[in-house]
Amino acid sequence: MLSGCASQQTAQDDRSPEDPWEGFNRGVFAFNEVIDRYALKPAAQGYDAVTPEPVQIGVGNFFSNLGEIRTALNSVLQGKPGNAGVASGRFVINTVVGVGGLLDHATAMGLTVDGEDFGQTLGVWGLDSGPYLVLPLLGPSTVRDTAGLPVDMYTYPLTYVEDDPTRYGLTFLRVVDTRAGFLEQEELIRGDRYSFIRDSYLQRRRYEVSDGETGDDPFASDDFDFSDDDFDDVDLDDAYAD
Prior knowledge:
Distance between the termini: 6 Å
Region (Disordered): 1-22, 209-242
Organism: Aidingimonas halophila
GO cellular component, one term: membrane
Pfam families: MlaA
Family: Belongs to the MlaA family.
Radius of gyration: 17 Å
Number of strands: 2
Helix content: 40-55%
């Protein structure tokens, strides 16, 4: 739900040239808010209340580790062999030494990576982002990022778990864990909630596609401890809570 927070939001007209479908988007946004308010957020609050912090960290590490495969593939497609190598190394180290990814030994070893997805790859290839788009359940996106979702889905290992109850259970856990991580940060949203989330998402995506060439990361502060994988690994980019 919250793809970042613009730390210095100036007063501006809510209308945006990047959001020509605002009427439709606000309707979908309202639907998503109802789902979040009455289902997802209560589940996340319960999870946060009963799950010890070390367990929550382990769960987050596990799902982030699965996302390294997607990052490695998209890094190759973007012509970033160094980032692809680091992502691959992180996956091997954390899977083997980190008990299936529950422990993040790679970061402790100084191996950090820029998360990549196929929407970013399309941007690097020169495809314009297109209009802003709010997807049912999936939340903030653009036409370009939406086009990249199928590739992101098929490059995420959880998709290939054949046992349906196991796959659904893990997906639900991933969504709830991600939503729980935003419980405190969402309190910092100011003004119109729809506009704030839209502008934050678009600013974040511009930063990611340009690899920071547009300036400093607007969300890198002590108040917002988000890793790139937090955004890359949620499919419901991807959870509306990505």
